[in-house]
Write a structure and sequence with these properties.
The protein has about 525 residues and is of the alpha+beta class. The chain is about 55% helix and about 15% strand. It has a 6-stranded antiparallel beta sheet with strand order 3-2-1-6-5-4, with helices on both faces. A 6-stranded mixed beta sheet has the order 10-11-9-8-7-12, covered by helices on one side.
Length: about 525
């Protein structure tokens, strides 16, 4: 519109530039300039300003009808980069137009040039200030949205944890507690595979108590834990692995690409681990990690309560009856079965008219042996540590009977500076009983060395034989030769049980109470007790 007068006067240059400016404006209307904090955007703004400087210089300098188009270019510079950028391009534009006019015109209009210079600088300042206000408003809006998002996440997290606290089992049954824990994990998280591992206090291994979405062995040794889970145990916290392939993996389950792991802490100690894994990389978010941390604390308390209740029940009457029944079955059941087979054989021989007198004589001798075995078994079951009879004295009496019935060469070395609490001392004696019974029945040993050290607050029981040993790779299995009973008793008093066995060499059972597993008890100063 401003160029219409010049175009009416047949000014072809103005008409051409008018078409160019209108075309450029139409292009920018369809494809607006996208400005970022990079060199490419700065160059685009520079081209915008240079184009309009050329238009103004070509059509009359400050008298050009396109001066306001140059002003809009400077406004764009201020909106894009602020004060300095707008003032820089304003100064360059002013210098270019004014210097060209003074060089190419005999009588430049100084007053008009000064007015446009002042106006252009003010426009640049206003554009820069507008940029500042807009940026502060954007930051405030971003902060407000970020805070709102955090509050929303916190609200969702607290609601989920509240549901966890309400739904965790009040029951002290361990299986129910584990089932409830897995159920809550299923409700709260989207995973491909999950597992709950509990620490076995007897040998410090990890028991796979519950699993979902994968197959795992019943037990995982400490040195076979995945790196991420070992890190969680070492840090006593949570570990998130967005990409197990990049960090060296693998996870607990095969073919998993991301995982989060956390320890279960109770009484200031690690009692278990929770593993959540997925086949997609970067699947778990920070919210999942925070939610798992919050979930772990009440879950650990519930599981620890159930485990301690199970231990108390283990040393109760019901579990004790189970052990007695197992002992009677192992020591007497086979003998009774043999007597039954012999009687059947004698009856059949008598029916055929065979001489049965010698067989009956042998059967009478066998029955006497079984009766003696029953008496020994009942006596062993009645024998126990008491306030009047400490571990060493009761163990000496028991070893005397073992020698008489098995012909084993048993050496007892002992050192006592104090007694354990009665409940702990009884369980240590029962562990020694169980170990010696295993040696009698299975080891085919000729020599046994027993070491007993007790300092009142700590104790070491060490039993070694020269028998055939366990098959390689099977020593320490929970079901090997009655080890389950010893492990249960050791765990019930907070002791650790270590089993070492070499095929053809022998077996060593060590029960440590209040002693670090790496510490080997010194035999110096121990007195040898020959019974």
């Amino acid at each position: 519109m401003l160029a219409a007068a010049d175009i009416h006067d047949n000014n072809a240059t103005t008409a051409l530039w008018c078409l160019a400016v209108v075309a450029y404006a139409g292009l920018r209307t369809i494809r607006p300039m996208r400005v970022e904090d990079d060199l490419q955007s700065a160059i685009a703004i520079g081209v915008e300003v240079v184009l309009h400087v050329v238009v103004v210089v070509s059509t009359g300098y400050w008298d050009s009808p396109f001066v306001f188009s140059l002003v809009t270019a400077i406004i764009i510079a201020g909106f894009a980069r602020g004060f300095i950028f707008a003032l820089l391009f304003a100064t360059l534009s002013l210098a270019s137009v004014t210097s060209t006019e003074f060089l190419r015109t005999d009588s430049p209009d100084v007053r008009l040039a000064g007015q446009w210079a002042a106006l252009t600088v003010l426009i640049a300042v206003v554009a820069g200030y507008t940029r500042r206000i807009s940026g502060e408003a954007d930051r405030q809006q971003t902060l407000a949205l970020d805070r709102l998002g955090r509050l929303s996440d916190a609200n969702a997290l607290l609601f989920s944890l509240h549901r966890v606290a309400q739904s965790l089992p009040a029951s002290l049954d361990l299986d129910e507690a584990l089932d409830s824990t897995m159920g809550r994990l299923r409700d709260l998280f989207d995973f491909t595979a999950a597992a709950v591992l509990l620490l076995d206090d007897a040998d410090r291994g990890w028991v796979v108590s519950r699993r979902e979405g994968t197959r795992l062995p019943p037990r995982i040794p400490v040195d076979e834990l995945p790196a991420a889970m070992a890190t969680a145990v070492a840090q006593r916290g949570s570990v998130s692995e967005p990409n197990l392939l990049v960090t060296g993996g693998p996870g607990l389950a095969p073919r998993m690409y991301s995982g989060i792991y956390t320890v279960l802490l109770a009484r200031g100690a690690v009692i278990g681990l929770v593993s959540l894994e997925h086949t997609e990389a970067n699947h778990f978010t920070e919210r999942d990690v925070e939610l798992l941390k919050g979930f772990a604390e009440p879950a650990a308390l519930a599981l620890d309560n159930a485990r301690w209740f199970a231990r108390l029940r283990t040393v109760g009457a019901e579990e004790e009856r189970t052990r007695i029944a197992r002992d009677l079955h192992d020591r007497i059941g086979q003998s009774l079965a043999y007597l039954a087979f012999e009687l059947d054989r004698i009856v059949k021989s008598d029916g055929r008219g065979d001489q049965v007198g010698p067989s009956l004589e042998q059967l009478r001798s066998d029955i006497r042996d079984v009766i003696r075995e029953v008496r020994d078994t009942l006596y062993d079951l009645r024998t126990d540590v008491s306030e009047d009879h400490d571990m060493l004295s009761v163990l000496n009496l028991y070893l005397q009977r073992v020698r008489e019935r098995s012909k084993l060469d048993v050496v007892l070395r002992s050192e006592e500076t104090g007694r354990l609490p009665l409940a702990q001392e009884r369980e240590m004696f029962r562990i020694a009983q169980e170990a010696l019974a295993n040696i009698e029945k299975h080891a085919e040993a000729t020599q046994v060395t027993i070491t007993w050290q007790c300092a009142g607050h700590a104790a070491v029981l060490d039993i070694a034989d020269n028998g055939k040993g366990f098959p390689i790779g099977q020593a320490g299995r929970l079901d090997s030769y009655g080890l389950i009973g010893m492990r249960e008793r050791a765990a019930s008093i907070g002791a650790t049980l270590h089993v070492e066995s070499d095929l053809g060499v022998g077996t060593r059972v060590r029960c440590l109470l209040g002693v670090q597993p790496a510490v080997r008890p010194s035999l110096l100063g121990l007195r040898r007790s020959a019974v």
